[in-house]
Amino acid sequence: MSTTTDPVLAAVERWETAGGTWQLSPTGPDSADVVLCRCDGGEEVERLHCSEAITLAVLRARSTDDQGGRRLEP
To answer: Residue 35: enclosing H or E segment and its boundaries?
Structure first.
């Protein structure tokens, strides 16, 4: 069960719990897409757009740790 009320963070949490990976793909200076990828080869399944500053900060921090996220360069 998700511990957050932010819909993008909740989706990322559910995706990680199911074994999927994700990537953060910047779309502008204050926005990014969260690319949800399959766990068995990294094929893109879905993109979630985010422009909330707090959510982006959390995702950027998580994308540099061991929790499955990666940051894609623009």
So the answer is: strand 31-37
Residues 52, 62, 3, 10, CA torsion sign: positive
Three-class SS state of 46:
strand
Residue 55, SS3? Answer: helix
Give the chain's end-to-end CA distance (angstroms, integer). 32
Q: What's the whole-model pTM score?
A: 0.79
**For every one of its 74 residues, what pLDDT tens digit does the chain have, with 9 covering 90 and above?**
456 789 999 999 999 999 999 999 999 999 999 999 998 888 999 999 999 999 999 998 887 655 555 544 44
Taking a C-beta distance cutoff of 8 angstroms, is the pair 40, 20 a contact? no
Query: On the CB side of 48, how many CA atoms lie within 13 Å of its CA?
Result: 20
Q: Give SS3 for 13.
A: helix
